[in-house]
Structures are given as structure tokens and as C-alpha cells.
Amino acid sequence: MPLILRPRQQNSMSDPLYATTSAPLSANVSHFPLYLRILWGITALLIVLAFLPGTLGDRTFLLRWGALAVTLIVTVPYLYRATKHGLLWRLRNKLILTYLLIGLTPVVLFCTLVFLSAYVAAGQFAVHLASQHLQLQLDNMGTSDAGFAFSLAHRVEQGATAADLGQGRDEGRTQSTAAGGRAATTTTPKPVGQPAGATPSQVARPPGLRQRSVYLDDQEIEFRDFMGNARSPMRLSPWIKQRRGGQLKVFAEDGGVLYMAVVDRVAAGKDHMITVIGSMPVTQPLLSNVAKGLGQVTLLPGVVEDAASGSVRSNTKQQRLAGGVRPTSVNLLDYQVVFRSRLPVLNWEGGEIRPVPLVVTSRPSVLFQQLFGAGLTNSITDAVRFSFIAVCIIFALLEIFAFYVAMRLTRSMTSSVEDLYAATLSIDSGDLSHRIHVQQDDQLADLGRSFNRMAWSLGRLIEEQKEKERMQSELSIAHEVQANLFPHSLSGIPSLQLHGLSRPARTVSGDYYDFLIFHDDPDQPRKVTGMGLALGDISGKGISAALLMSTLHAAVRAYRFASEELFAEEARSVTHQLSLECGELFESPARILALLNRHLYRSTQPEKYATLFLSHYDDRSGRLTYSNAGQLPPFVMKPDGSVRALDKGGTVVGLMDGMRYDQETVQLESGDLLIAYSDGVTEPENDFGEFGEDRLLDVVRANRDQPLEVISTEVMAALDAWIGGAEQPDDITLVLARKV
Question: Would you put residue 339 in left (φ > 0), alpha (ψ -120 to 50) or beta?
């Protein structure tokens, strides 16, 4: 079928041919639809009204969040479609997004992992330093209390009683301030304003002082001028009595107050046990000393976490203790590190340990100074910091360079794709002269060159198609002209029935058949005297064979009309004998073949020739005179089914000059059937061989009593069944004549 180019302006998005080549939808999604703009306007109005004081603001406070959620739910799918069909319609944007996902995502994940690791490491380091500082304060307190306990045990071994120890308390009483870490041996005066009748345990001591309680054989020793309150100094708990000896240094919670507590149990001889309980409240000055050079340390003693059950207990007496100040950043990368840990705290009454939240706030610069400041000089520290920054800059430059190279490669690929897309649009619009300007030398460039070759081939194909259509039109005209050459009216012979059929293998045929009717007077035809039958096959197929067939047809007709004219002319001339000779010209097929052979030999190419069966039937006598020039012999089938081949004649016409042909006369009886055919009837092949003359005769013999048209139809049906789905190999011509 002919190739048709559809103009671009006639394309429709509903046409499935162009359904996958639509333009980007960015023009359709460049503006929000009306319903989205209305929805966003209502949401913005509710957000503004929520800030107004009064009832209106209170009612719209929660409503705005619902409207914002609905707006986002409706907008996100629209933005996704807009991004997919607008931004991501171009191949370049897709490649850039692919590079960002493949190239930058691992970098981002790696940097995130490094940041999280550094954050966790810095937080752990900060918590470790804070815990060490707290433990150092506790160790210092334990060292002092251990010496005091051993001195009391020594006095007991020397025979001192509890009263002696209480009376000598002012001689060795040691007080130290927790803030400065200093210890001073002083005599503690009676505080001013002590109420009359108050016991020493009911008098509050100044905060931040180390306090002790002493027990001999689990009995408290009342020291002179003792000062304290109900919880300080800390009393002997039942779980302490179960300890045999040694020192215990813990953070303890008693009555909602957090203490540093040291318990020393020292054997005084074989029969006595000295117990010294030292305690000091954890205060802001203490935490400030701990947080020095670190940042800020915060304890939440009012929030006690149960490690076993996971429950949290809140105590309103002391919610938060903080010491130190949050350090300021020295640069943009000096981020704040806030890390949380747990400080094991002993419940003084029950003896169980529960975690208390410990929060340390610091910065990498401070931790870096703590980590390297003690062992390295400032120059080495600066060199390490500079090296780390230099490596980060190098990595960033490598990433930028990789992104630049990726963009260049992306541009080179997408430019070729865009050129191809523009070229396809030009070809689609009918501009087959469009060519892609190729500058590179890679696979995409070869693709552009291949497209140029395809466009050139397509243009040539269209030109050939046009030429083919022109030739097809001319062949159609030739077919119509050739159809007019075959006889249309087969009536007029009283004693003979005629039927002819020719089916070309292509548009035009190289086979030839003709019926020529003879009258007694060519000027005034009154009575049919005879009939001339011609059947031929031109060498080859197609237009050249059809042209030669037309030449043969014209020559046979010319000789027929010439003989008829000569017969009429001579009939009016002098001698009747000469008229008979001229009238018998066409009645002698051998003489006509000789003339045709000379004519074709001298007027056609050497390789062109034709086979021709030529005969003359005399209606009065029923005699058939024929001569066969290389044509497959026709058959005369008798009523009893016997056949006779008409093979008298000579070689083909047009191949050699000066040829002579023989002829023979056959008497046709009533019921005799003449079967003339071309090689296209008997030579078609399939897996069983050729169709052959025997199958032709069997089909005719089976239907010999039927009309000639029926016989012809049965023969063609059998022949088509033999050929099957294959192409018809040659022109098919079949001529039937029956003697009435």
C-alpha cells in the first residue's frame, strides 16, 4: 500500500499514533487550578484569623491545622504530576535527578553518618568527662573521710569511749567547702539564733559544707556543738549495717535532695566497728566546678528513672541542678552537642540504685581542646584542624568537579536527543530534507548519522513509491487496454460453442487468445462461414510480455483482415481462381505462422519469441485446420472420453528466420471438445509435483457434459487448490470449444 505522511498540524492527542509523543505538560501546569487557589486562599485566611485575639482567634486556632492538612493532601499529588509531566519531561532533567540520586545521595548519607557518629562520639566524650569530674569530687571526699574514720578507730583501740569521742570532736573536726575543694580544721562555734531546747540535729548547717555522722557499734556518737537537720548529716540506714567493712562512695538521694555520700566502716579492735558517713549536697557551685572547661552539666534529680520497669518518678522538691555555662560557637561548623546519660543514684532509705538523667551541653571546639590540648601544643592542634579542613575542601572540590563533568556529559547526551526529537518532528511534518548537524564522534553521533541516512532513505522510498504508484496506474491502464484485446462476444457460430479465460500472474498478461469470425461478405456480413482460433504464450511475464502480446495480436488481426479484404477484392476481379487463393490465406495456419515468424524476428529483440497455436474452423464442413508453433498441444476430447493431441506444426515464432510450419486438418464430430491451454495451467507445482495434463483432462472429463463456463470454473478451482497459498507462478489461459 502507498506510504502516507500525516501532516503535523492534523495530529490529535486522541490519535493513538501520537499518544506517546505528546509535548510536555508544563504549559498546562504552570498555574494552579482554580480549586487549589481557592483552597489555599481559605487556608491562608484561617491562619491569619488564628492570630487574632478573642473568640474568633480561639475557634480558628485548631481549624487552621485541619485546613492546612487537607490543602497539603490535595496539593501534593498535583505537584507530583506537575513535576513528572513538566519538570521531568525533559531527558536532561531526568539525568540530573538520576545523578543527584545516585551520586549525591551516598555522599549525603555518608556525611549524615559521619555527623551522627561525630555527634554521638562527642556526646559520649562529653558525658565521660562530666562523669569523671563528678567521680573525682567523690574520690577527694572519700580520701578525707577514710583518714578520719581510721583515726577514730585508733582511739577506740586505745580505750576511748563514745563520750570521749564526742567530747573531742571539736579538736579534729574538719570542714571543707565543696565549691573550692579546700579543707580547714576549725572549731565550729554555736550558730547565732539557735532556738532554745533545739537538738543539734535540728539545726541547719550552711549549704555546701561537708558533713559527717559517726557511729560506734551502730550507735550514734553525739558530738559537742553538732549542727545539722533531719536529713543532714545522713543517718545510718539498715542496709549499711549489713556491710562488714570497707568504703562505699556513691551519689545518694535522701528526701528528694541529691548528695555525694561516702560510707567508711572500720573495725576498731575485735569487738567494735566505727562507721563514718560523710555527705555533701550536690549544688550549683559543685556542678560549676565539674563543668569547668566542658560546658554546662545538668542533673535532674527530680526525674528518677526506674531501670527495671522503665517508669519515671518526678519529685517536685528539686527538679533541676545546672552548673557551668553553654559555650559559644567559634565558627559555623562548631555546632552545639547536647547529650544525655544516666547517673546511678542510691536511694538512702532502701538501698536500691536508680538512674537520674544527666545532660551535658558542649561544643566540638571545647571537646577538641580537652582531647588534644593537654598532649599537643597549639601549633600541632592547629595543624590537625587545618589538615581536616583541607581534606574536606578537597572532597568538596572533587564532588563539584564530578558534578561538572556529569553536567557536561548530560548536556552532550541530551543535545543529541533534542536534535533527534526536533528532526522527528520535522520528518513528521513532511520535511524529509531535514538533517541533523553532527559534530561529535560517539555512539549518539552515529545515531544522528543513522537518522540522516534513514531520512534520506525515507525520501528515496517515497520517491520510489510515487514512481511505483505512477507505474501501477499505467499498468492499470494497460490492463484495461489488454482486456479490450480479448474477445468479448463469442456468439454467431451455429455449430460451435466457444469459451475463453485468461488470468494474468501480474497486472498484465503475456498470454494471448483470440477468436476471429469469417463471413461470406466482409462488407455485408450475412452468414458466418468459419472461425479462426489463436492461442499463444509470450516469453517472460509482465509489461514486456504484454507489449509483445499486443504486437502478436495486432499482427494476427492484420493478417486476418488482410486475407478477408483480399478475398473480397479478388472476388470482384477478373479470375475466380485467384480469389480462391487469396481467400485461403488465413485458412492456411502454416502460412500465417511463417509470416508471423518473419515479422516478429525482424521487429523484436533476439531473445523475444512466442509460442502460438493457430487454427481455422470451417462451419460448413466441420473441419479444423491447425498448425502448432511450439505451444503445448491442445486436445480434442471425444464423447467417449478419448483424447487426441494437436501437435503438428513447428518451432516457436520470432526466434529464427525463414522457418516453415506444417499443418493438419481434423474432422470435428458432434460432442467433440477442443481444450487449448497455456503452460500456466499444467506447470504449477506443490509438494506433489506439477498439476500436469492428466489432472486437467480428468477435471474436464468429469464435467464434459456441463456448460463450458462450468468446466472452466472447475478447472480453475482445481488449479487454485493445487497452488494453495503460494503466488500464481505464470499467466493462465484456457480456451474451450465444443462441436454442436
Answer: beta
Beta bridge partners, 734, equal: 501, 677
The CA distance from 302 to 322, in Å, is 13
pLDDT of residue 677: 95
Assign 613 to helix, strand or coil: strand
pLDDT tens across 164-211, in order? 777 654 333 333 333 333 333 333 333 333 333 333 333 333 344 668
pLDDT tens digits, residue range 641-685?
A: 999 999 999 999 998 998 999 999 999 999 999 999 999 999 999
598 in Cβ contact with 557 (< 8 Å): no
Whether the predicted pLDDT of 541 surpasses 80: no
Task: Show the 3-state SS of 137-161.
Answer: HHHHHHHHHHHHHHHHHHHHHCCCC
Contact 344, 355 (CB under 8 A): yes
- Closest to 650 in 3D by CA, of 611, 682, 681: 611
CA distance 379 to 326: 26
How far, in Å, are 224, 324, 468 from residue 357 at the CA level?
Answer: 39, 17, 94
Query: 559-582 burial, b if ≥16 CB within 10 A, otherwise e?
Result: bbeebbebbbebbeeeeeeebeeb
d(CA 534, CA 7): 54
Query: Residues near 546 by Cβ (< 8 Å), separated by ≥ 6?
Result: 478, 482, 508, 509, 510, 538
Residues 55-81 have a mean pLDDT of 81
**CA 231 from centre of chain:** 75
Predicted pLDDT of residue 350: 82
- How confident is the model over 390-401, as a mean pLDDT? 86
Query: Where do we find the cell 475463453?
Result: 500
Interstrand relation of 635-637 and 664-667 (parallel, antiparallel or unpaired): unpaired
For residue 266, what is the enclosing H or E element?
strand 257-268
Non-local CB neighbours of 301 within 8 Å, separated by 6+ positions = 253, 256, 257, 258, 282, 315, 318, 319, 321, 345, 356
Question: CA 249, CA 588: separation in Å to the nearest integer?
Answer: 149
pLDDT reported for residue 625: 93
Q: How confident is the model at residue 526 (pLDDT cuts 50, 70, 90)?
A: low
SS3 call for 275: strand
Q: pTM of the predicted model, to two decimals?
A: 0.46
Sheet holding 732-739, edge to edge: 496-503, 732-739, 673-677, 635-637, 643-645
Choose among 442, 436, 474: nearest CA to 454. Answer: 436
C-alpha cell at 162: 563514745
Alpha carbon 380 to its chain centroid, in Å, reads 54
Q: Find the DSSP H helices in 168-236.
A: 169-172
- In this predicted structure, what is the pLDDT of residue 676? 96
Cβ-defined contacts of 175-178 (< 8 Å, 24+):
175/209, 175/210, 176/144, 176/209, 176/210, 177/208, 177/209, 178/137, 178/208, 178/209, 178/210, 178/280, 178/281, 178/283, 178/285, 178/286, 178/289
Q: What's the rounded Cα separation, in Å, for the pair 50 and 58?
A: 7
Cβ neighbours around 557 below 10 Å, total: 15
